[in-house]
Amino acid sequence: MVDIREVPEAHIDRALELAYLVFHDRPDEEGRERHHALLSHCARLGAYDGDALVGFMAAHEFRLSVPGADLPCPGLTFVSVAPTHRRRGVLTALMDEQLRRTGAAGAPIAALWASESAIYGRFGYGCATQGATIEIDSTRPLALRIEPDPRPLRLVDPRDALAVIGPYHEAARAGRAGRPTRDAVRWNESWLCEQDEEDEELGPPRIIVIGDPGKPIAGYVLYRTKHEGDGGPARSPGLVRVDELEADTPAVAAALWDCLAGLDLTGKVRAWGRPPDDPLLRFAADRDQVRVTAQFPALWLRLVDVRAALTRRSWAAPVEVVLELADVRLPGNAGRFRLKAGPGGATYEPAAAPADLELEVRDLAACYLGGTRVAELAAAGLVAERTPGAAAALDAALSTPLLPHTADEF
Ligand SMILES: CC(=O)SCCNC(=O)CCNC(=O)[C@H](O)C(C)(C)COP(=O)(O)OP(=O)(O)OC[C@H]1O[C@@H](n2cnc3c(N)ncnc32)[C@H](O)[C@@H]1OP(=O)(O)O
């Protein structure tokens, strides 16, 4: 029987060894130091078999943008169970303790990125945001249907970048749900790190901002480049990998994409984690030149305290529905509740009336940020619609002008 308890600072190296074992990873010294610094800033839970650490889980102390609010939201990461102890309930024990602690700390939601989609639904997590990989064929100029913003572009030294783009990013989080806070450790550990963790051929981070001198910036892009091919021909088809692009307006975004597509000695721009409704996909004049090459599950969300989660977000339209909610891991959330919500706020109270909609907590989580439609889940047989029109009414209330989006893979 394993014992679940906090992992002290002194055991972080052991936790990292376990993580490298299960993720088949072998980072260099610098990578280890970065991971060590990261974990020392996280809450840490371990599963101990006697003295041996056989299971581990860390949690960032994030806040997450949700419609109309910003909620405390632990971000689970480094989930690892030793091969000698797999499929014996170690993860389940860690998750139960994590959910208990999240609730006790007053965080209404929790989030993670899943290594495999099959793992977390059983713990009440639903996939709440999707990422899209967009590729631009930049062997020719980017064809646009709108005029790019003419303001000047400026390169920023990565060492100064946090001061310039950090506040912009923090303000932009409210523009879409699903975006976690990013502290200096997170910025430096991945986004601004000299060496990309996944692809050692990529160069250092490059940051270009746009805006009039002396005025606040109107947007930025963070990207890395690499040579592709054998490097023989004078103009090799190099790759521009875009990690983040934020803009005040479509014209600003157009200027930044245009700049990326125009980088000399490159032939392709690949933005790996864009929102599926990226304006680029609309203002590109030639959709054969700008293509979505992949779509993938991004942020998985858990409604730990359903009442708090529902009453603390904003609502786009009035709705009154009785929900019959199933939650096997947190029975306090289970039962029949009347949700009365609208632009003025929401209440969520136990109800005796028959349910309009019956659903599992993981499916409510998938819909919570407005990225999945309840009607779609009803059509798939996952939500039972007992009152015709109830799913559409709830969707109208949950909807957001822009889709939720999470580029922070943690
Ligand atoms: C947020 C993140 O960090 S995501 C990273 C997750 N970690 C990894 O992928 C690293 C490699 N894998 C591991 O370390 C482990 O296999 C884990 C953490 C995925 C699972 O840990 P375990 O202790 O084996 O899980 P546990 O025994 O509690 O399983 C609970 C249930 O989930 C199922 N399950 C666990 N892992 C998986 C999986 N990868 N795919 C499908 N089902 C799974 C089990 O079969 C079990 O089902 P049951 O209740 O019907 O019997």
UniProtKB/TrEMBL annotation:
EC id: 2.3.1.-
Protein name: GNAT family N-acetyltransferase
Lineage: superkingdom: Bacteria
NCBIfam families referenced in this protein's UniProt entry, alphabetically: PRK01346.1-4 (NF002367)
PROSITE patterns: GNAT
Active site: 120, 410
Molecular function GO terms recorded: acyltransferase activity
Similarity comment: family membership: Belongs to the acetyltransferase Eis family.
Taxonomy of the source species: Bacteria, Bacillati, Actinomycetota, Actinomycetes, Kitasatosporales
SUPFAM superfamilies on file: Acyl-CoA N-acyltransferases (Nat) (SSF55729), SCP-like (SSF55718)
Organism, scientific name: Streptomyces flavotricini
Key words, A-Z: Acyltransferase, Transferase
Gene3D superfamilies: 3.40.630.30, SCP2 sterol-binding domain
Pfam families found in the cross-reference section: Acetyltransf_17, Acetyltransf_9, SCP2_2
Binding site for acetyl-CoA: 79-81, 87-92, 115-116
